[in-house]
Amino acid sequence: MRSLPMSPEEREARFEAWEWLLRAAKDRKVAEREWVPIGGPALLQAGKVFDVLRVTYRALGMRLPDPRGGPPLPMSRTDLIDRLAALGITGMVYRSDYRPYLYFLVPPETDKRWTMPPILRDQAECSGGSYADTHLVGLPSPNSLEGPHLHWVRPFGPGGPAAWLADPEHLLTVLVERAEAAV
Q1: Taking the CB of the first residue and of the last residue of the chain, which one, N or C, has fewer CB atoms within 10 A?
Q2: Among the listed residues 174, 157, 173, the one whose alpha carbon sits nearest the alpha carbon of residue 165
Q3: From residue 51, how far is each of 29, 82, 169 by CA, in Å?
Q4: Confidence bin at 65 (pLDDT 50/70/90)
Q5: Strands of the chain, DSSP E
Q6: How would DSSP label each residue in 45-83?
Q7: What b-and-e string marks burial along 77-111, b requiring 16 or more CB atoms within 10 Å of the CB?
Q8: Can you tell me the distance from the alpha carbon of 16 to that of 11, in angstroms, rounded to the nearest whole number?
Q9: pTM of the complete model
């Protein structure tokens, strides 16, 4: 992982994100060992401080064709951020260059409040802690900003959790509009 110079504000935001995310760890020390030094994902419990919405690129109207017919190619970070901004989607999102999904952090209990329309079947899934089974999700370290492994598309910035969590109602609206337009 390449280390770029960070401003004091960026450093503070990453530290705050680190502490906030670790509130979802069953065992903080284990989660920190998973993040450092190998930079792998830590298994955190969805539903404590966030839920995770997994969405296909296709559901957002983004196609990732490989001209050679192989698996999808990763979209550049800049292009992805621009496309999400054009859709009015804010908040933290992470991905792996090997998978055709984006993962959005949304408020806890979104999994309970969200009603998944049939048109989105197999294109979006919300994992949280509102049901009997516990959902453990792999999240990259706040310092993981490059692929191909799990990494954040947007670095954590100022504003805390209120700015980091995506608006689930807006996401649902965008997803339904895109799905209906594709039919």
Answers
A1: C
A2: 157
A3: 22, 24, 13
A4: low
A5: 42-45, 51-56, 93-95, 101-106, 124-127, 136-139, 151-152
A6: ETTSS-EEEEEETGGGT-----TTSSSPPPPPHHHHHHH
A7: beebeeebeebebbbbbbbbeebbbbbbbbbbebb
A8: 9
A9: 0.89
